[in-house]
Design brief:
disordered N terminus, disordered C terminus, 4 domains, alpha+beta, elongated, Transferase(Phosphotransferase), domain 1, 5-stranded antiparallel beta sheet, Phosphorylase Kinase, domain 1
Length: about 550
């Protein structure tokens, strides 16, 4: 365990950060008791108290005698209700707190001007990589000269704690303005256009932002000009910043480009920022991020993004202009090569839209639209394909004379196919609504198994050519990436096949081939077992990537 005067090790740092995040959400009156419940060592208690003091969560009245007081010698913990003391600056108030940084409003004494000062939220307890990324932000932003990039005035450190002094923007974030409906759509698009121009200049200097989103865009109250902030994850393509190792996944779920998931630094290009700009436009148009996922569920985001493309904004709101819809969809293409070649091209198309001119982005052709439709409704699309394949096969063998024409079975087959499509359409639509996804998938899958069983029973029974379709349903259930669902479908298929066998035997049907029955049931079980194992392995991989994401954020 690290001592109170030392920087914590990796394990201590992770534990402290977790405790700090939990403690920040606890009422100050209950905080001392909560700290005692954690049964921390005295060193850990001192460090946690210091961190909370730096974040201004304690007050003198809150700190009881049995809770260690913070070290008051450090500038960022100079007092429970005092601001850091930095020469030539007078800090006036806290402007904002983020996951890693805290921003103060201050006055620079010479030259005299209002400034914003950013410091690390955990102060002296920040990891080395956090400090490096913090300084990387200053280095990246200070090298870009553009009206949409917040200029950096000074960087430095006071008693070991780094700080960045930058231009004070009298405004608020685009995210907050969108959330509170304080900005019109075209005004937000115009602001994004300014940001695109600034990012284009950054790209020309080899700097990739990697974390573009509405909360990193400031809108000035009076001038309504836009400013890009937070270059903490920026990467210089001209050299190694030493901050991102292969395997790290950095970015914000919902606004992160698909290629950022790989963790390979060579996959990060200007197209990555184009996606972030397009994702911000998507938020402007629809009110949500392209991929909606809880912030505490990065694994769900990774899993979803690997299987789906972004739904077109006009699918969520038909009132969105077609031109903006096309611009947005081109910017958030899954394949980087299909996006705008640069942020400047995206800016040019936004300018054409605002000027009422035709945009360069073109709507998808029919094949691409069909592909996108299928990717957003995978279960329904697969069901339609399976039904079409069955009807084609059934019609072919019937018309060619390979199968005896049976009007009753044909009728049952058509009805079963229609019911399968209705079942899929109903549950697919239901899944687009929040809540009870697992229950809906179970009902959907059981409905498919029962319809197939009805079709087999109405036909040739144990001699039916459709018996292998049960194995197909088991395999398809694995596409939904839920182990319990594979178990359910496998069990249902085995039960229905066994029930068909018992029904056949009970009503005096021909003697069934026991070896064939056992072989089919073993096949069903093996398919289910393989699917179950593959999904479990996939889940483990996603969880490992999720931990890497959290570790990268922590670091």
């Amino acid at each position: 365990m690290s001592h109170s005067g030392e920087t914590p090790g990796a394990e201590d740092h992770q534990r402290l950060f977790q405790l700090f995040e939990e403690a920040s959400r606890i009422d100050s009156e209950q905080l001392p008791a909560w700290i005692r419940q954690q049964q921390l060592s005295s060193h850990m208690e001192v460090q946690l108290a210091s961190m909370l003091a730096a974040d201004h969560q304690f007050t003198d009245a809150d700190a009881e005698d049995d809770v260690p007081r913070p070290d008051r010698s450090a500038p960022h913990t100079s007092g429970l209700n005092q601001f850091p003391e930095i020469p030539n600056y007078r800090i006036e108030k806290v402007l904002d707190r983020g996951g890693a940084g805290i921003v103060y409003q201050a006055v620079q004494l010479s030259p005299r001007r209002p400034v914003a000062i950013k410091m690390l939220r955990m102060g002296l307890f920040s990891s080395d990589s956090s400090r490096q990324r913090f300084l990387n932000e200053a280095s990246a932003a200070s090298g870009i000269d553009h009206p949409a990039i917040v200029p950096v005035y000074e960087t430095g450190a006071i008693r070991g704690e780094p700080f960045i002094s930058m231009k004070l923007i009298d405004g608020t974030t685009l995210e907050r303005m969108l959330r509170e409906s304080q900005i019109e759509r075209n005004e937000a698009v115009a602001a994004l256009l300014q940001v695109c121009r600034g990012i284009a200049v950054a790209h020309a200097q080899g700097i990739i932002h990697r974390d573009l989103k509405p909360s990193n865009i400031l809108i000035a109250h009076q001038t309504r000009t836009a400013w890009v902030t937070d270059f903490g994850l920026a990467r210089n393509l001209g050299g190694s910043d030493g901050l991102t190792a292969t395997g790290d996944t950095l970015g914000t779920p919902g606004y992160m480009a698909p290629e950022q998931l790989s963790g390979a630094t060579e996959s990060i290009t200007a197209a990555t920022d184009v996606y972030g700009l397009g994702a911000t436009l998507y938020r402007i148009l629809t009110g949500v991020a392209p991929i909606a996922v809880a912030d505490d569920n990065p694994a769900g985001f990774i899993d979803f993004l690997r299987q789906h493309e972004v739904a077109a904004p006009r699918e969520k709101n038909s009132g969105i202009p077609a031109a903006l819809n096309d611009i947005c969809m081109r910017a958030v293409e899954t394949n980087p090569a299909d996006r705008y070649a640069s942020a400047a091209e995206l800016a040019d198309d936004l300018q054409r839209y605002l000027d009422g001119e035709p945009v360069q982005a073109r709507p998808l052709n029919r094949l691409r639209r069909a592909h996108r439709w299928a990717r957003h409704r995978p279960g329904l699309a697969v069901t339609i394909c399976m039904v079409a394949a069955f009807l084609t096969f059934h019609s072919t063998v019937t018309l060619s004379g390979l199968q005896i024409h049976d009007p009753i079975f044909n009728f049952i087959a058509v009805v079963s196919c229609l019911l399968a499509i209705v079942n899929a359409a109903f549950w697919q639509h239901s899944l687009r609504q929040p809540g009870a996804a697992d229950f809906k998938l179970c009902c959907w899958s059981l409905g498919e198994v029962l319809l197939l069983s009805l079709l087999i029973a109405a036909g040739e029974g144990l001699e039916s050519r459709l018996i292998p379709a049960w194995a197909v349903l088991i395999a398809l259930s694995g596409l939904r990436r839920r182990p319990f669902l594979v178990v359910l479908v496998t069990t249902a298929a085995l039960a229905n096949y066994g029930g068909l066998w018992l029904f056949h035997t009970a009503f005096g049907g021909p003697v069934a081939n026991t070896l064939q029955i056992a072989s089919n049931m073993l096949s069903f079980a093996l398919v289910g077992l393989i699917q179950f194992a593959v999904i479990r392995q996939s889940i483990v991989s996603v969880e490992m990537e999720s931990r890497q994401t959290r570790h990268s954020t922590l670091a």
